[in-house]
Task: inverse folding
């Protein structure tokens, strides 16, 4: 059976002190839940975050990594470096990386492969832009993003893949996909995976929704059968909001 997951993507927010303070509050207030709970602080605070959460169920994950093993890639971080500090899951393909750092499907496919070669779990993000949805092209865009980065993987690799559908128009805008829109897309994603691989793989992959998830809308979105949790931006920076969202799963 697939896991329920609530993950907080902190993006470029929270210095060391703020990271430690937020993690201490989250650990203290974490409700009893079957869901996996994850947080993705900034790179420089990952080690400290791992230490803070040693006795906690909350997993520390990374926001990005490079596809090369090592070498002359100034400013970048490798798979080995993550494993070495006990970070075993990485977000790949966030729309902000695609838009501001020119990460193409080809680059993302290489990153995914490198992570999997190191037995790192991948939380793969994808989603259409507003123009795609207006042009009723959103299913095609999503299918292509999945196909280009993931559909060359061996079937066995899918046990280490988590999907996060994040429509770009809903990220940080306060505008959310309706629960029906999220369900419609998640169902489509599962069907597309079943066609490319098989129904078991499709049934076992967790598909998270991301884009302006808040305590107020989380219960309805998480209530949909193909929505297995959320990837939360802004609301994950506020302890009480993130806790309320975890309670909604
Ligand atoms: P918001 O929740 O701030 O819209 O961000 C979503 C997101 O990009 C998570 O990765």
Result:
């Amino acid at each position: 059976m697939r896991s329920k997951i609530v993950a907080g993507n902190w993006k470029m927010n929270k210095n060391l002190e703020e990271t430690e303070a937020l993690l201490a509050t989250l650990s203290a207030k974490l409700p009893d839940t079957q869901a996996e709970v994850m947080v993705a602080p900034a790179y420089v605070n990952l080690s400290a975050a791992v230490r803070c959460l040693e006795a906690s169920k909350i997993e520390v994950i990374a926001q990005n990594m490079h596809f090369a093993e090592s070498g002359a890639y100034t400013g970048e971080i490798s798979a080995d470096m993550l494993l070495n500090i006990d970070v075993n899951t990485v977000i790949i393909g966030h729309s902000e990386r695609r838009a501001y750092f020119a990460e193409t499907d080809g680059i993302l496919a290489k990153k995914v492969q490198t992570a999997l070669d190191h037995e790192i779990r991948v939380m793969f993000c994808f989603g259409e832009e507003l123009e795609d949805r207006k042009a009723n092209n959103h299913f095609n865009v999503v299918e292509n993003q999945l196909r280009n980065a993931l559909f060359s993987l061996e079937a066995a690799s899918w046990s280490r893949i988590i999907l996060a559908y994040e429509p770009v128009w809903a990220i940080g805008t306060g505008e959310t996909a309706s629960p029906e829109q999220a369900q419609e897309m998640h169902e489509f994603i599962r069907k597309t995976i079943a066609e490319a691989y098989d129904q078991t793989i499709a049934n076992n992959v967790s598909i998270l929704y991301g884009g302006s998830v808040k305590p107020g809308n989380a219960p309805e979105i998480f209530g949909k059968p193909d929505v297995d949790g959320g990837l939360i931006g802004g609301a994950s920076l506020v302890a009480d909001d993130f806790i309320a969202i975890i309670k909604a799963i």
